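Q: How would the structure tokens look for this protein?
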Amino acid sequence: MIPAQVFEETLLQFLAPIRPFLDDPSVSEVMINGPHQIFVERGGCLELTDARFHSHKALGAALRNVAQYVGKHFDERHPILEGRLPDGSRVEAILPPAAPRGPHVAIRRFAKEALTVDKLIQFGALPAQAAQALSAMIGAKLNVLVAGGTGSGKTSMLNALSSFIPARERVVVIEDSQELQLQQPHVVELEARPADARGRGAVSVRELFRSTLRLRPDRIVVGEIRGGEALDLIQAMTSGHGGCLSTLHATYPKDTLTRLETMAMMSDVSMPLLALRVQIGSAVDIIVQMARLADGSRKVTHISEVEGFAHSTDNYVVRDLWLREYSMEDNEAPSDRLVPTGIVPACSTRIRERGYELPEAMLEAQHQRERSHD
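A: Here is the predicted structure in token form.
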């Protein structure tokens, strides 16, 4: 058997044209459009590089080695590859004929050190008092979803928010592909597995989720909701498993709930739509909305509370507790800041009962809002 270190080094030799980018901490993504066009992302901006693979064969050989490293088949009959490199970078590749001008590859890189809340505050992703509010919400075991578009920083935010989970709790993490780096002392990490070439041995996120409920979790963290496991998570949230955390793709807080609805309907359980919506409205407490702004920065744009589903309006009741405001003054660059809206959270009683307090900024905004309405 080839030693793992030798295998990894051989793999990196095949990736020699892009290896400088894999070693560069400022590069967050490497995108390969065929052998002669390679882009990288730095600070949220794309740059065309001078790097090249010698030929289609050279790029194909590199990708076959990646597939071998992760134990997957990658050829014309299996033209899509999902995997990761030895350093944990996530790889998505598509071969011809599915990609006529390919192969096309995207390599998402992750910082070797998990992004902390302090760093997010320093980068302006969220202010300190908003972080304090999220700390109270997560400490009080509210169910929190982190939503956003592709590359908006959802996983990094979930990593950071997980630091608010008390160290005494047992955390079970379920991922399709391992990306999270939780720092708690008692973490159980589970990862889904695709079937082998003969269609055997697959372990789905849903199967792992069902096993998780028997592993005595204090918290359940799902890396990303992608399908029918949404219904399992909703059921867990409404049956006593508080403090669940997860991410999903959505542009605005209300879109997050309708996306969750759609994915729950992908399950093999038939449920009336109204009953599903009532459960979602009861299950989800807080939505942290992420976005990549025009300057490439990744920031929290909303912290919203879900108060349920209103039969009278046939809509979810979602109220923004924090909202990012944008402004532009003469001859100055656009500015933005996340501010409290002054809305009193319905969950504030639950937060106090758990021994936590919301930040002073939210209370001050509440008083200002009340005075303005007098």
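The CA atoms of residues 7 and 211 lie 33 Å apart.

Residues 117-373 form a domain with the Rossmann fold fold (CATH 3.40.50.300).

Upvote if useful.
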